[in-house]
Amino acid sequence: SDEPRQAYLLAYVVAAAFICIGDLNPIANLITNFFLVSYALVNFACFAASMSKAPGWRPSFKLYNPWLSLVGALACLAIMVLVEWITACVTVVVCAAIYAYLYYKQPEVNWGSAGQAWVYEHTLRMSQRLVRVKPHVKNYRPAYVVMCKSVREELGMVQFVSYLNRGGGVMMCGSVLVGAGAFDVALAERRRELLADNDRALRTGGVAAFQDVLVAPTLVSGVHACMQVSGLGGLRPNTVVLGFDENWARSTHGSWPDGTYVSLLRGAFALNHSVVVTRNIGRLFDEAATSSAQIGGRIDVYWLLDDGG
Questions:
Q1: Mind listing the pLDDT tens digit of every residue in the chain (309 residues)?
Q2: Taking the model in full, what pTM does it have?
Q3: Cys-Cys link to 29, which of 38, 44, 87, 124 (CB 3.0-4.6 A)?
Q4: Residue 282 contacts by C-beta under 8 Å, 6 or more apart in sequence?
Q5: Environment class of residue 154 by beta-carbon count within 10 Å: exposed (0-12), middle (13-18) or buried (19+)?
Protein backbone atom coordinates (compact mmCIF):
# COMPACT_ATOMS: atom_id res chain seq x y z
CA SER A 1 0.00 0.00 0.00
CA ASP A 2 0.93 3.67 0.00
CA GLU A 3 1.22 3.90 3.78
CA PRO A 4 4.50 5.63 4.78
CA ARG A 5 5.72 2.83 7.04
CA GLN A 6 9.30 4.10 7.10
CA ALA A 7 8.10 7.53 8.24
CA TYR A 8 6.05 5.88 10.99
CA LEU A 9 9.08 3.90 12.10
CA LEU A 10 11.30 6.99 12.14
CA ALA A 11 8.73 8.95 14.17
CA TYR A 12 8.48 6.06 16.63
CA VAL A 13 12.26 5.85 17.05
CA VAL A 14 12.61 9.61 17.60
CA ALA A 15 9.73 9.72 20.09
CA ALA A 16 11.03 6.68 21.99
CA ALA A 17 14.52 8.18 22.18
CA PHE A 18 13.21 11.44 23.61
CA ILE A 19 11.00 9.61 26.12
CA CYS A 20 13.95 7.51 27.27
CA ILE A 21 15.88 10.68 28.10
CA GLY A 22 13.30 11.44 30.78
CA ASP A 23 13.98 15.18 30.82
CA LEU A 24 12.72 17.79 28.39
CA ASN A 25 15.33 20.45 29.21
CA PRO A 26 18.22 18.80 27.29
CA ILE A 27 16.12 18.43 24.17
CA ALA A 28 14.16 21.69 24.37
CA ASN A 29 16.64 23.53 22.16
CA LEU A 30 16.61 20.74 19.58
CA ILE A 31 12.81 20.68 19.46
CA THR A 32 12.76 24.47 19.11
CA ASN A 33 15.21 24.30 16.20
CA PHE A 34 13.12 21.63 14.51
CA PHE A 35 10.07 23.89 14.68
CA LEU A 36 12.07 26.88 13.45
CA VAL A 37 13.52 24.99 10.48
CA SER A 38 9.99 23.87 9.56
CA TYR A 39 8.83 27.50 9.54
CA ALA A 40 11.93 28.49 7.56
CA LEU A 41 11.27 25.84 4.92
CA VAL A 42 7.62 26.83 4.60
CA ASN A 43 8.56 30.48 4.13
CA PHE A 44 11.26 29.61 1.62
CA ALA A 45 8.86 27.33 -0.27
CA CYS A 46 6.44 30.26 -0.66
CA PHE A 47 9.28 32.48 -1.89
CA ALA A 48 10.52 29.84 -4.35
CA ALA A 49 7.01 29.21 -5.69
CA SER A 50 6.60 32.94 -6.32
CA MET A 51 9.97 33.25 -8.05
CA SER A 52 9.18 30.28 -10.31
CA LYS A 53 6.09 32.14 -11.59
CA ALA A 54 4.06 28.94 -11.54
CA PRO A 55 0.47 29.67 -12.68
CA GLY A 56 -0.85 27.25 -10.05
CA TRP A 57 0.62 29.32 -7.20
CA ARG A 58 -1.99 31.96 -6.35
CA PRO A 59 -1.84 32.93 -2.65
CA SER A 60 -5.12 34.45 -1.47
CA PHE A 61 -3.62 36.40 1.44
CA LYS A 62 -3.93 40.05 0.42
CA LEU A 63 -0.79 41.22 2.23
CA TYR A 64 1.39 38.43 0.91
CA ASN A 65 4.79 39.41 -0.44
CA PRO A 66 7.46 36.92 -1.59
CA TRP A 67 10.28 39.01 -0.18
CA LEU A 68 8.59 39.01 3.21
CA SER A 69 8.59 35.20 3.03
CA LEU A 70 12.32 35.24 2.32
CA VAL A 71 12.91 37.58 5.27
CA GLY A 72 10.87 35.22 7.47
CA ALA A 73 12.97 32.23 6.38
CA LEU A 74 16.23 34.06 7.10
CA ALA A 75 14.89 35.26 10.46
CA CYS A 76 14.06 31.68 11.47
CA LEU A 77 17.58 30.55 10.57
CA ALA A 78 19.08 33.44 12.56
CA ILE A 79 16.97 32.59 15.61
CA MET A 80 18.09 28.96 15.34
CA VAL A 81 21.71 30.05 15.65
CA LEU A 82 20.90 32.42 18.51
CA VAL A 83 19.08 29.69 20.46
CA GLU A 84 22.09 27.36 20.27
CA TRP A 85 24.42 27.05 17.31
CA ILE A 86 25.28 23.40 18.05
CA THR A 87 21.66 22.23 17.84
CA ALA A 88 21.23 24.46 14.79
CA CYS A 89 24.05 22.56 13.07
CA VAL A 90 22.51 19.24 14.13
CA THR A 91 19.16 20.34 12.68
CA VAL A 92 20.74 21.33 9.37
CA VAL A 93 22.55 17.98 9.19
CA VAL A 94 19.31 16.08 9.85
CA CYS A 95 17.47 18.03 7.14
CA ALA A 96 20.32 17.45 4.69
CA ALA A 97 20.30 13.72 5.48
CA ILE A 98 16.54 13.49 4.83
CA TYR A 99 16.95 15.36 1.53
CA ALA A 100 19.87 13.13 0.50
CA TYR A 101 17.84 10.04 1.33
CA LEU A 102 14.90 11.17 -0.78
CA TYR A 103 17.23 12.16 -3.63
CA TYR A 104 18.90 8.76 -3.53
CA LYS A 105 15.68 6.75 -3.33
CA GLN A 106 13.94 8.73 -6.06
CA PRO A 107 10.38 7.84 -4.99
CA GLU A 108 7.89 7.57 -7.83
CA VAL A 109 5.87 10.60 -6.79
CA ASN A 110 5.37 13.99 -8.36
CA TRP A 111 5.13 16.73 -5.77
CA GLY A 112 5.01 19.54 -8.32
CA SER A 113 7.90 21.27 -6.63
CA ALA A 114 8.88 24.88 -7.18
CA GLY A 115 12.21 23.60 -8.48
CA GLN A 116 10.47 21.94 -11.43
CA ALA A 117 8.61 25.16 -12.23
CA TRP A 118 11.83 27.18 -11.93
CA VAL A 119 13.66 24.84 -14.33
CA TYR A 120 10.89 25.30 -16.90
CA GLU A 121 10.83 29.07 -16.51
CA HIS A 122 14.63 29.36 -16.61
CA THR A 123 14.93 27.09 -19.66
CA LEU A 124 12.26 29.06 -21.51
CA ARG A 125 13.99 32.36 -20.73
CA MET A 126 17.41 31.06 -21.83
CA SER A 127 15.94 29.57 -25.03
CA GLN A 128 14.45 32.94 -25.92
CA ARG A 129 17.83 34.59 -25.31
CA LEU A 130 19.57 31.99 -27.45
CA VAL A 131 17.41 32.93 -30.44
CA ARG A 132 18.98 36.40 -30.42
CA VAL A 133 22.55 35.07 -30.28
CA LYS A 134 24.29 35.27 -33.65
CA PRO A 135 26.14 32.05 -34.55
CA HIS A 136 29.93 32.16 -34.70
CA VAL A 137 32.44 29.59 -35.86
CA LYS A 138 34.18 29.62 -32.46
CA ASN A 139 30.97 28.57 -30.73
CA TYR A 140 29.85 26.07 -33.36
CA ARG A 141 28.43 22.84 -31.94
CA PRO A 142 27.15 19.99 -34.07
CA ALA A 143 23.54 19.25 -33.19
CA TYR A 144 22.39 15.81 -34.29
CA VAL A 145 19.05 14.41 -35.33
CA VAL A 146 19.36 10.60 -35.52
CA MET A 147 16.81 8.97 -37.78
CA CYS A 148 16.09 5.44 -36.63
CA LYS A 149 13.27 2.93 -36.88
CA SER A 150 13.36 2.72 -33.10
CA VAL A 151 16.01 3.53 -30.53
CA ARG A 152 16.10 -0.04 -29.24
CA GLU A 153 16.73 -1.57 -32.67
CA GLU A 154 19.48 0.92 -33.51
CA LEU A 155 20.86 1.61 -30.04
CA GLY A 156 24.44 1.13 -31.27
CA MET A 157 24.13 4.04 -33.70
CA VAL A 158 22.46 6.19 -31.05
CA GLN A 159 25.26 5.47 -28.55
CA PHE A 160 27.88 6.21 -31.21
CA VAL A 161 26.33 9.62 -31.88
CA SER A 162 26.22 10.29 -28.14
CA TYR A 163 30.01 9.80 -28.09
CA LEU A 164 30.34 12.30 -30.93
CA ASN A 165 28.16 14.67 -28.94
CA ARG A 166 30.62 15.11 -26.07
CA GLY A 167 30.94 18.75 -27.10
CA GLY A 168 27.58 19.45 -25.51
CA GLY A 169 25.43 19.91 -28.60
CA VAL A 170 21.78 18.96 -28.93
CA MET A 171 20.97 15.35 -29.78
CA MET A 172 17.57 14.16 -30.93
CA CYS A 173 16.27 10.79 -32.06
CA GLY A 174 13.48 10.70 -34.60
CA SER A 175 11.31 7.75 -35.58
CA VAL A 176 8.65 7.66 -38.28
CA LEU A 177 5.44 5.64 -38.20
CA VAL A 178 4.03 5.22 -41.69
CA GLY A 179 0.25 5.49 -41.64
CA ALA A 180 -1.52 5.80 -44.94
CA GLY A 181 -4.95 6.25 -43.44
CA ALA A 182 -6.38 8.70 -40.96
CA PHE A 183 -4.68 9.45 -37.67
CA ASP A 184 -6.95 7.23 -35.60
CA VAL A 185 -6.84 5.96 -32.03
CA ALA A 186 -4.93 2.79 -32.95
CA LEU A 187 -2.18 4.78 -34.67
CA ALA A 188 -1.96 7.19 -31.75
CA GLU A 189 -1.61 4.23 -29.37
CA ARG A 190 1.22 2.78 -31.49
CA ARG A 191 2.94 6.15 -31.33
CA ARG A 192 2.63 6.31 -27.53
CA GLU A 193 4.02 2.78 -27.21
CA LEU A 194 7.01 3.61 -29.44
CA LEU A 195 7.64 6.81 -27.50
CA ALA A 196 7.68 4.91 -24.21
CA ASP A 197 9.93 2.18 -25.63
CA ASN A 198 12.37 4.73 -27.05
CA ASP A 199 12.51 6.51 -23.71
CA ARG A 200 13.27 3.25 -21.88
CA ALA A 201 15.97 2.37 -24.43
CA LEU A 202 17.66 5.76 -24.00
CA ARG A 203 17.72 5.34 -20.23
CA THR A 204 19.04 1.77 -20.53
CA GLY A 205 21.79 2.86 -22.91
CA GLY A 206 22.73 5.84 -20.75
CA VAL A 207 22.12 8.30 -23.60
CA ALA A 208 21.03 11.87 -22.87
CA ALA A 209 18.88 12.83 -25.85
CA PHE A 210 15.47 14.07 -26.84
CA GLN A 211 13.24 11.81 -28.90
CA ASP A 212 9.98 11.99 -30.77
CA VAL A 213 7.86 9.91 -33.12
CA LEU A 214 6.19 11.36 -36.21
CA VAL A 215 3.27 9.84 -38.05
CA ALA A 216 3.41 10.44 -41.81
CA PRO A 217 1.88 8.93 -44.97
CA THR A 218 5.34 8.02 -46.34
CA LEU A 219 8.79 7.49 -44.87
CA VAL A 220 10.34 10.29 -46.93
CA SER A 221 7.77 12.89 -45.87
CA GLY A 222 8.13 11.84 -42.23
CA VAL A 223 11.92 12.11 -42.24
CA HIS A 224 11.81 15.45 -44.07
CA ALA A 225 9.26 16.75 -41.56
CA CYS A 226 11.46 15.59 -38.67
CA MET A 227 14.44 17.45 -40.17
CA GLN A 228 12.40 20.64 -40.40
CA VAL A 229 10.51 20.73 -37.11
CA SER A 230 13.04 19.18 -34.72
CA GLY A 231 14.43 21.49 -32.08
CA LEU A 232 13.38 24.83 -30.69
CA GLY A 233 14.76 28.26 -31.52
CA GLY A 234 18.54 28.13 -31.39
CA LEU A 235 18.48 24.47 -30.37
CA ARG A 236 17.83 23.08 -33.82
CA PRO A 237 19.81 20.20 -35.34
CA ASN A 238 22.28 20.91 -38.09
CA THR A 239 23.48 17.34 -38.71
CA VAL A 240 21.40 14.37 -39.86
CA VAL A 241 22.55 10.84 -38.97
CA LEU A 242 21.34 7.93 -41.08
CA GLY A 243 22.14 4.26 -41.23
CA PHE A 244 23.76 2.87 -44.36
CA ASP A 245 21.56 1.28 -47.02
CA GLU A 246 23.13 -2.16 -47.37
CA ASN A 247 21.04 -2.84 -50.49
CA TRP A 248 21.81 0.41 -52.24
CA ALA A 249 22.67 -1.34 -55.53
CA ARG A 250 19.22 -2.98 -55.69
CA SER A 251 17.19 -0.77 -53.41
CA THR A 252 13.95 -1.84 -55.07
CA HIS A 253 14.27 -5.22 -53.33
CA GLY A 254 15.95 -3.90 -50.18
CA SER A 255 14.68 -2.34 -46.99
CA TRP A 256 14.37 1.06 -48.66
CA PRO A 257 11.91 1.63 -51.50
CA ASP A 258 13.40 2.69 -54.81
CA GLY A 259 14.83 6.21 -54.60
CA THR A 260 13.87 6.74 -50.97
CA TYR A 261 17.37 6.78 -49.55
CA VAL A 262 18.62 9.26 -52.15
CA SER A 263 15.59 11.45 -51.50
CA LEU A 264 16.46 11.58 -47.79
CA LEU A 265 20.02 12.69 -48.59
CA ARG A 266 18.85 15.31 -51.05
CA GLY A 267 16.36 16.65 -48.55
CA ALA A 268 19.04 16.97 -45.87
CA PHE A 269 21.37 18.82 -48.25
CA ALA A 270 18.52 21.08 -49.37
CA LEU A 271 17.95 22.06 -45.73
CA ASN A 272 21.66 22.90 -45.47
CA HIS A 273 22.26 20.08 -42.99
CA SER A 274 25.41 18.06 -42.65
CA VAL A 275 24.90 14.32 -43.14
CA VAL A 276 26.52 11.43 -41.29
CA VAL A 277 26.00 7.92 -42.70
CA THR A 278 27.04 5.10 -40.37
CA ARG A 279 27.61 1.45 -41.22
CA ASN A 280 27.93 -1.58 -38.92
CA ILE A 281 28.05 0.63 -35.82
CA GLY A 282 25.65 -1.66 -33.96
CA ARG A 283 27.87 -4.68 -34.67
CA LEU A 284 30.84 -2.82 -33.22
CA PHE A 285 29.02 -2.14 -29.96
CA ASP A 286 27.74 -5.72 -29.77
CA GLU A 287 31.26 -7.11 -30.13
CA ALA A 288 32.60 -4.66 -27.54
CA ALA A 289 29.93 -5.77 -25.06
CA THR A 290 30.43 -9.50 -25.55
CA SER A 291 34.20 -9.70 -26.00
CA SER A 292 36.95 -8.66 -23.61
CA ALA A 293 39.58 -8.69 -26.35
CA GLN A 294 40.62 -5.47 -28.01
CA ILE A 295 38.68 -4.87 -31.20
CA GLY A 296 40.76 -4.00 -34.24
CA GLY A 297 39.89 -2.97 -37.71
CA ARG A 298 39.65 -0.05 -40.07
CA ILE A 299 37.49 3.03 -39.79
CA ASP A 300 36.77 4.81 -43.08
CA VAL A 301 35.75 8.45 -42.85
CA TYR A 302 34.63 10.15 -46.06
CA TRP A 303 34.25 13.90 -46.20
CA LEU A 304 32.03 15.38 -48.91
CA LEU A 305 32.67 19.11 -49.17
CA ASP A 306 31.58 21.79 -51.57
CA ASP A 307 34.81 23.49 -52.65
CA GLY A 308 33.03 25.84 -55.02
CA GLY A 309 34.16 23.96 -58.13
A1: 678 888 899 889 988 887 887 777 778 888 899 899 999 999 998 998 888 887 778 888 888 899 999 999 999 999 999 988 888 998 999 899 988 988 888 777 777 777 778 888 888 888 888 888 887 777 778 889 998 888 888 888 888 888 888 767 888 999 888 877 667 788 888 889 999 999 999 888 888 888 888 888 888 888 888 888 888 878 888 889 988 876 655 544 345 555 677 888 888 888 888 888 888 777 776 665 556 666 666 767 766 666 654
A2: 0.66
A3: 87
A4: 154, 155, 156, 157
A5: buried
